[in-house]
Design goal:
By secondary structure, the chain is mainly alpha-helical. The chain is built from 12 helices and 5 strands. The strands form 2 sheets. It has a 3-stranded mixed beta sheet, covered by helices on one side.
Length: about 260
């Protein structure tokens, strides 16, 4: 894939750090552009559970759940991510995602762009043991962090490449512990007719847990979900502002204006 083809993928951004984002608003980006630091200041103040509505808005089965269920699923998924981050750190004697990946026998590569896709991706796990971290996103993040006030908000704990790697590592951990890990063993019943029934995993649980896993390993003082806005900003400040607006509204907060004020 060449750079022009990849940039054209921004016309329909479908995936971020969280995964699939099939919202029509990304096809019609007409949003007030806000200062990056102002948006991030609002987002880092959100508790991990506060992201539940945003996370579940990308879930195919979202309409089957109540808000109480979504919150409970989110809490359990966060606890799962933290538990397995600590478990893996103990098992491999490190919290460094690069070292953990090596000890787990993962094949990690850092190409500029994904191949054979029109989606904008930051990182990707391919079973059974391949992880790709796309450096175009990492390099754009390095530029975005130079925006006024951004580095102070995101703190020196942030290493974008390692954070993306940690998130993708979680999906390998899910496979390794699939018989016991909450994100794979939790099922919801789609239908039942007499003795027949159809149970399904909930895709979003793994994404929420993956965010918590990455946050725990990398020692971030805020949710990894913040990266959705931060990384998209490197491609389109307008789309990042629209995503921020959506997140704020779904969490019951008031977005800042074009000057970064409330």
């Amino acid at each position: 894939m060449d750079k022009e083809t990849f940039q054209n993928g921004l016309k329909t951004i479908k995936e971020g750090l969280i995964g699939k984002q099939n919202s029509n608003r990304y096809q019609r980006p007409h949003f007030t552009i806000r200062p990056l630091a102002a948006m991030l200041r609002d987002l880092v103040e959100m508790d991990a559970v506060d992201w539940y509505a945003y996370a579940f808005s990308r879930e195919p089965l979202n309409g089957k759940f109540t808000d109480e269920q979504r919150i409970e699923f989110t809490k359990e998924s966060i606890a799962c991510g933290i538990e397995y981050a600590q478990k893996i750190a103990r098992e491999y004697g490190s919290k460094n995602p690069v070292m953990i990946a090596e000890k787990m026998g993962m094949e990690v590569s850092y190409p500029d762009y994904p191949e054979k896709t029109d989606r904008v991706l930051f990182g990707e796990f391919k079973e059974p043991d391949k992880i790709m971290i796309y450096m175009d996103a990492v390099n754009k993040a390095a530029k975005s962090i130079k925006e006024p006030g951004v580095k102070e908000v995101l703190t020196s704990h942030l290493n974008v490449k390692n954070l993306l790697l940690a998130h993708e590592l979680f999906h390998n951990v899910e496979d390794k512990y699939r018989k016991e890990i909450y994100t794979r063993t939790k099922k919801v019943r789609l239908w039942n007719i007499g003795p027949l029934h159809n149970d399904s995993e909930v895709y979003t649980l793994g994404e929420i847990a993956g965010m918590a896993f990455a946050q725990e390993l990398c020692g971030l003082p805020y949710s990894s979900f913040v990266m959705d806005v931060f990384l998209v900003y490197g491609y389109s400040p307008e789309e990042a502002s629209g995503l921020y607006e959506e997140i704020m509204e779904k969490s019951g907060r008031i977005p800042c204006d074009a000057d970064g004020n409330h």
